[in-house]
Description:
Elements: H1 8-20, H2 22-32, E1 40-45, H3 52-65, E2 70-76, H4 89-92, E3 102-108, H5 120-128, E4 134-138, E5 155-160, H6 167-172, E6 181-184, H7 192-205, E7 216-218, H8 227-243, H9 245-274, H10 278-288, H11 293-309
Parallel strand pairs: 1-4, 1-5, 2-3, 2-4, 5-6, 6-7
Amino acid sequence: xxxxxxxxxxxxxxxxxxxxxxxxxxxxxxxxxxxxxxxxxxxxxxxxxxxxxxxxxxxxxxxxxxxxxxxxxxxxxxxxxxxxxxxxxxxxxxxxxxxxxxxxxxxxxxxxxxxxxxxxxxxxxxxxxxxxxxxxxxxxxxxxxxxxxxxxxxxxxxxxxxxxxxxxxxxxxxxxxxxxxxxxxxxxxxxxxxxxxxxxxxxxxxxxxxxxxxxxxxxxxxxxxxxxxxxxxxxxxxxxxxxxxxxxxxxxxxxxxxxxxxxxxxxxxxxxxxxxxxxxxxxxxxxxxxxxxxxxxxxxxxxxxxxxxx
Length: 310
């Protein structure tokens, strides 16, 4: 069966619309939304310097060798001045820049503490609905708080590197618990054995919580070493997700809906507060010392309550 030709320019325009005016984009997304069983969303996450982009580049290459089309959303830290992405992962994935079967989009995190841009859920849903065989989401490396990827990815690949030392213990309470697959990248470095032992200890302590026990893969992405083993585990987890679709998808969709609802409510509240320059007036009062932030918060609560009752 001939695959639908992917219109990269049209996709880029739609993503820009989502980023710039998400309220207006909701009608379009509601019409386009699909949840196909055969599209795997792979989240690649981990601390800065773990080699996530190089690993993603390797995964793209393997998927393309299988004849699969791939969309990549690379969420970068944002410029504090423009809000735009400042790292530009497309540079590190330049080998696929001219491949018509690969679509790569960088997005700024715009201050999101969960590691994903606020519009990422919408963009991933758009790409899932557009005919790609796989979607890769590479997230900002912000450590323990980077858990939003749970809500958007079917398979979460947590990338670590030897030499983290006590950082692994710091990660244990949060990001370590989201992984479906652990990848020790730069596995030719000293300290690999210690890192493997620490991960295995954490897994053993939490074994009764796992239906799927996360495997540990060792890679040297710059040399394409270990990538075949990683792809085997990605395929095995995809099969697990298909076999346990409702049990796996339901909590992920619940997290996604919660995040989307919270973002929508936040935008609505900010729109209400911005009406009639109320927010500016409150800021003027705080700056002038006439009121403090807590007094303003009480006024905001009263203001929203009155608007809801009206």
